[in-house]
């Protein structure tokens, strides 16, 4: 049974991936500072693990701390060796992700995202643990004229958050090139992750007013926020609202497991991979499907375009399919249903 370190494993995507890892017979060590998640949320992960199979509970543990703290990270690796088992790979979610905040506080984003990854790599190198999955983002592409974006599209982020993700990808490529027959690295470029675990026990719960559309829709539906503003209805798209590639968080979690298995069983590699469905949904379509699927009202009005938005961004996911045999299975209706089930239980 392989032991995997999951940085930021108490967050939205990390928690779903941890559950999936446990179900696939991995041992999971989470390191999380709780800067954007809570201790209570870890209790929920454990309740879910226990519900699936009480044995899973013995295979997960958490360390509270910041990945920029090298002593903490080294302590986790040493403790693992002393327990008689090495950490065989790292899935690295820990980071900050609010685009607007990154514009106001760029240094904070370089510190958390870049320096955090830098420290992690130093420690991984020291303990000769050289298998890494990194949470990148479709935001690295910026604007593109392509209909479906492939991994070879130009890298052209438009905000500090995106710059940190692109810089980390470059840094990881340098690290790989320095020892190409030692490192195994996958940078997973997520499109728009939404939805929640079908149990309704874990999901996304952002602090304060949500930045992204899906938690916003949920909070309008439950009355916490009065009204959704749709940013522009004059885009060059089928209904005038922006098109995005929404992907169910459990399909995304599965993409991590398959990437990890691919890295562990193949020769050393560096890969960039799009994780999206290849299907575009407009903001208006998303709102309508959410209302119909969940029999709720989401009052909205049209507002001005948001700075930095683009009309359409949808993944070409054929590389992930050919390398990993990964194919997302959940529809946008399922994403809306699962997301709302979780929202009602928060
Ligand atoms: P999240 O905020 O829910 O989870 C991140 C977790 O990392 C949180 O639990 C937080 O407390 C922890 N964390 C942050 N900085 C830390 C540090 N220095 N040390 C230890 N723990 C730290 O975010 P998420 O949506 O699960 O995203 C996970 C990763 O995926 C992030 O790197 C994000 O940039 C990337 N990503 C997310 C999306 C998205 O839409 N959710 C899209 C593309 C990429
Ligand atoms: C945003 C980030 C991107 C990040 C991604 C996933 C920006 C500019 N980009 O992308 O870096 O990788 O989230 O976390 O923030 N919308 C509304 N009303 C709202 C909120 C959003 O109409 O209140 C629209 C937006 O204009 C957009 C769509 O909904 O067309 C999706 O928005 P959002 O969830 O913020 O994701 P992205 O903009 O795709």
What's the topology here?
Blueprint: E1 3-7, H1 12-23, E2 27-32, H2 39-52, E3 60-64, H3 70-82, E4 87-92, H4 99-104, H5 106-126, E5 131-137, H6 160-178, E6 184-190, E7 192-194, H7 213-221, E8 228-231, E9 243-244, E10 246-248, H8 249-265, E11 270-275, E12 281-282, H9 283-294, E13 300-303, E14 312-313, H10 318-324, H11 332-345
Parallel strand pairs: 1-2, 1-4, 2-3, 4-5, 5-6, 6-11, 7-10, 8-13, 9-14
Antiparallel strand pairs: 9-12
Helix pairs in contact: 1-2, 1-8, 3-5, 5-6, 9-11
Uridine-diphosphate-N-acetylglucosamine binds at residues 97, 99, 137-139, 161-162, 192, 211-213, 216, 228-231, 242, 244, 283, 306, 308-309.
Q: How is this structure best described in words?
A:
There is one protein chain. By secondary structure, the chain is α/β, with parallel strands linked by helices. The chain has a domain at 3-194 and 246-277 and 316-322: Rossmann fold (3-Layer(aba) Sandwich), CATH 3.40.50.720. Helices cover 42% and strands 18% of the residues. It has eleven helices and 14 strands. It has a seven-stranded parallel sheet, sandwiched between helices. It has a three-stranded mixed sheet with strand order 12-9-14. β2 (27-32), α2 (39-52) and β3 form a beta-alpha-beta unit. The chain starts with a strand and ends with a helix. The protein binds nicotinamide-adenine-dinucleotide and uridine-diphosphate-N-acetylglucosamine (UD1). Residues 7-8, 10-14, 31-37, 66-68, 93-95, 97, 112, 116, 135, 137, 190, 193 line the site of nicotinamide-adenine-dinucleotide (NAD).
């Amino acid at each position: 049974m392989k032991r995997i370190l999951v940085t930021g494993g108490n967050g939205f995507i990390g928690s779903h991936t941890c559950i999936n890892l446990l179900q696939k017979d991995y041992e999971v060590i989470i390191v999380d500072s709780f800067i954007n998640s809570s201790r209570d949320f870890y209790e929920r992960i454990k309740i879910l693990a226990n519900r699936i199979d009480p044995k899973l509970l013995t295979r997960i543990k958490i360390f509270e701390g910041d990945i920029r703290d090298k002593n903490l990270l080294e302590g986790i690796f040493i403790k693992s060796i002393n327990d008689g088992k090495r950490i065989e790979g790292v899935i690295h979610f820990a980071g900050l992700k609010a685009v607007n905040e990154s514009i106001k506080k760029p240094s904070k984003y370089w510190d958390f995202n870049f320096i955090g990854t830098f420290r992690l790599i130093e420690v991984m190198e020291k303990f000769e643990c050289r298998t890494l999955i990194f949470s990148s983002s479709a935001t690295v592409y910026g604007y593109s004229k392509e209909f479906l974006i492939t991994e070879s599209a130009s890298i052209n982020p438009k905000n500090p958050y995106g710059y940190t993700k692109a810089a980390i990808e470059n840094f990881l490529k340098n690290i790989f090139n320095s020892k190409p027959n030692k490192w195994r690295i996958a940078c997973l470029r997520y499109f728009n992750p939404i939805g929640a675990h079908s149990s309704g026990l874990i999901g996304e719960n952002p602090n304060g007013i949500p930045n992204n559309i899906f938690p916003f829709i949920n909070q309008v539906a439950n009355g916490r926020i009065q009204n959704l503003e749709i940013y522009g209805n004059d885009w060059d798209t089928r209904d005038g609202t922006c098109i995005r590639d929404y992907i169910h968080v459990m399909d995304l979690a599965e993409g991590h497991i398959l990437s990890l298995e691919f890295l562990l069983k193949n020769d050393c590699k560096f890969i960039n991979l799009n994780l999206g469905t290849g299907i575009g949904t407009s903001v208006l379509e998303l709102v309508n499907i959410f209302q119909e699927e969940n029999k709720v009202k989401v009052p909205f009005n049209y507002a001005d375009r948001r700075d930095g938005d683009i009309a359409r961004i949808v993944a070409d996911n054929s590389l992930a399919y050919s390398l990993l045999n990964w194919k997302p299975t959940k529809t946008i209706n399922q994403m809306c249903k699962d997301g709302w089930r979780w929202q009602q239980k928060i």
